[in-house]
Specification:
This protein is mainly beta. It is built from no helices and 11 strands. Strands 2, 4, 5, 6, 9, 10 and 11 form a 7-stranded mixed β-sheet that branches. The chain has a 4-stranded antiparallel β-sheet with strand order 1-3-8-7, with no helix packed on it. The chain is globular and about 45 Å long.
């Protein structure tokens, strides 16, 4: 059973930075994929960035160049560094994981394990 727990959400002004963390017990698997999704009010959950055990990262175009997904294998933590945030980056951010798969995309249906979500609010 894989467990995923997000932290690090909060309020930030537009142009500022925030770092999300995701603690997960998936890093001991030989292969795996993890991703950050977000859900804005009234909208479907959408992928933001993904990273697999081979360190292949994929970003949605709207965050490329501003967000960085990374992991610390020793600490079993996945990060999302959010720089130059915009109001439209607001939403609930979810960490997702799936073992034994190397993914290069972020479809909700690809991921088996999800955290409870952490709120990010960007104000002007």
């Amino acid at each position: 059973q894989v467990h995923v727990v997000e932290s690090g959400g909060g309020s930030v002004q537009a142009g500022g930075s925030l770092r999300l963390s995701c603690a997960a017990n998936i890093f001991t698997y030989p292969t795996y994929s993890m991703a950050w999704f977000r859900q804005r009010p009234g909208q479907e959950r959408e992928g933001v960035a993904s990273l697999n055990s081979m360190n292949d990262a994929v970003y949605v175009p709207s965050v490329e160049g501003r967000f960085t997904i990374s992991k610390d294998n020793a600490k079993s933590i996945l990060y999302l560094q959010m720089n130059d945030v915009k109001i439209e980056d607001s939403g609930i951010y979810y960490c997702a994981a799936v073992p034994y798969k190397l993914l290069y995309r972020f479809l909700v249906s690809d991921y088996d394990y999800w955290g409870q979500g952490t709120q990010v609010t960007v104000s002007s």
